[in-house]
Write a structure and sequence with these properties.
Layout: E1 2-7, H1 17-20, E2 34-40, E3 43-47, H2 54-57, H3 59-63, H4 65-71, H5 81-87, E4 95-99, H6 105-108, E5 118-122, H7 123-130, H8 135-140, E6 151-155, E7 160-162, E8 165-170, E9 178-182, E10 191-196, E11 201-204, H9 224-233, H10 237-254, E12 258-261, H11 266-273, E13 277-278
Parallel strand pairs: 3-4, 4-5, 5-6, 11-12
Antiparallel strand pairs: 1-2, 1-13, 2-3, 7-8, 8-9, 9-10, 10-11
Length: 282
């Protein structure tokens, strides 16, 4: 298996170090939409999709006025994941499967660019997107992004133990090296995606946390504006905090075997994106 790290959308909200923890207050922070392209024996597999090409043509309909105002995303015609895949020399039509941590607009915006792909997501997350209950639900799930009727593969939240976590499951049609990990809280059906590269595990934790300081097992910490944003966007506070604690324990007990990263931290993305990691799939 070969893993390519891609940025499917750059966000530049105001807040500086209050958001990203980096030096400088009176500047825009930088956040990313960390996606993965996996070369597997079952074909190309995409983890997350970023904004997608339609964000460059109809940004307000695709991403929402509030998201555009608050996040100030770069609308770069060359950044959609589908175009990055083509620049890598692949046919985007060969992406057979997409695995999503959740269906927020900055994670699912590129689904329409891969209409032939099977989309794996927790059933609870799909229910939340199809029947939004709250104002927050209606703002985070954009109906336009699902109007093409994706080929959904909804999964129940059942599975087996994995490195101290419960109910982790394999996905039909995908190699056993790719696992769906329940990490509810940010949304009702939020997931992590674990990948066995052969030389260790990667765990894409989505929006289960936003800043690497939150995984510090001794002194968890997060920039204040980012912590406020997390709490504003959470669907289930108790589940979110519980799953962050589980991730801290995973990092503490298995940090030599598992590299954990979130969807939006630019430092984590830069750490992983320098060179694709290579391993042989079984």
């Amino acid at each position: 298996m070969r893993v390519h790290h891609l940025n499917g959308g750059t966000l530049r909200p105001l807040g500086g170090r209050l958001l990203d923890g980096e030096a400088g207050l009176f500047r825009r922070a930088e956040m990313v939409c960390h996606c993965l392209l996996l070369e597997t024996d079952a074909g190309l597999v995409l983890v997350e999709t970023g904004f997608g090409t339609q964000a460059t043509h109809r940004p307000e309909e695709w991403l929402g006025r509030r998201f555009l105002r608050v996040s100030s995303p770069d609308i770069d015609a060359e950044q959609p994941v589908v175009r990055q895949i083509a620049r890598l020399g692949f046919d985007p039509g060969d992406v057979r499967h997409i695995v999503l941590t959740h269906l927020d607009l900055d994670h699912a915006g590129g689904l329409v660019d891969f209409p032939q792909a099977t989309v794996h997501v927790y059933a609870e997350e799909l229910r939340a997107a199809e029947r939004p209950r709250t104002t927050l639900d209606r703002s985070r799930y954009r109906a336009a992004q699902f109007a093409h009727k994706p080929k959904w593969a909804p999964h129940a939240g059942v599975g087996e133990p994995w490195l101290g976590l419960e109910a982790v499951r394999e996905l039909d049609g995908l190699p056993p090296e790719i696992l769906l990990v329940p990490l509810a809280g940010h949304t009702r059906g939020h997931a992590g995606v674990a990948i066995d590269t052969g030389g260790g595990w990667l765990l894409h934790a989505g929006d289960a946390y936003f800043h690497p300081g939150e995984l510090d097992p001794v002194r968890p910490h997060c920039p204040p504006a980012l912590a406020l944003f997390e709490s504003m966007m959470q669907t289930e506070k108790r589940a979110r905090l519980h799953n962050q604690q589980r991730l801290r324990e995973l990092a503490r007990d298995h940090g030599g075997r598992v590299q954990i990263f979130s969807a939006h931290n630019s430092a984590e993305y830069r750490h992983h994106a320098g060179t694709p990691s290579k391993a042989t799939a079984t």
